[in-house]
């Protein structure tokens, strides 16, 4: 099996798992009210201002988790479709993808549509993209 085909299968599998966890996993259910945050850095600052030993795990899951879970996409997307990816092209595509996911969460009333998640997810994707560039020597 060709390497690109294997990477594409891995990307599809990872995408399906992520969609499951975003929309159905963790006992998610439909909320009767809209749950969203459109104030930049509101959720991030709330977590950082109230961090203590008691809620450190929640803070790490929210802040680090929202970055870490999207790092594989930053690597897998350009690896699965290996045409030349510029930083700006990847940033635009990935940001649009995250906006779509966050909007779907808000409209379906599953989870929370949060602009801070957008920032954190895009940072994760960009970290993965830079890892891809480093290991494929595209950054040189």
TrEMBL record:
- Supply the InterPro entries for this chain: Teicoplanin_resist-assoc (IPR053150), VanZ-like (IPR006976)
A Pfam family in this protein?
VanZ
- UniProt keyword annotations, A-Z: Membrane, Transmembrane, Transmembrane helix
Which ranges does the record mark as transmembrane? 7-26, 60-78, 90-112, 118-135
Q: Which residues form the VanZ-like domain?
A: 12-135
Q: Supply the name of the protein.
A: VanZ family protein
Q: Which organism is it from?
A: Paenibacillus shunpengii
């Amino acid at each position: 099996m060709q390497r690109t085909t294997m990477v594409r299968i891995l990307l599809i599998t990872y995408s399906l798992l992520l969609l499951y966890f975003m929309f159905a996993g963790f006992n998610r259910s439909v909320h009767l009210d809209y749950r969203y945050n459109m104030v930049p850095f509101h959720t991030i600052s709330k977590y950082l201002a109230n961090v203590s030993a008691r809620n450190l795990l929640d803070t790490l899951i929210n802040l680090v988790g929202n970055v870490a879970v999207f790092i594989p996409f930053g690597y897998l997307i350009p690896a699965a479709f290996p045409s030349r990816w510029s930083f700006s092209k990847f940033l635009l595509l990935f940001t649009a993808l995250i906006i779509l996911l966050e909007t779907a969460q808000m409209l379906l009333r599953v989870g929370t549509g949060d602009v801070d998640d957008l920032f954190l997810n895009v940072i994760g994707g960009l970290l993965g993209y830079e890892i891809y560039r480093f290991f494929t020597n595209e950054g040189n």
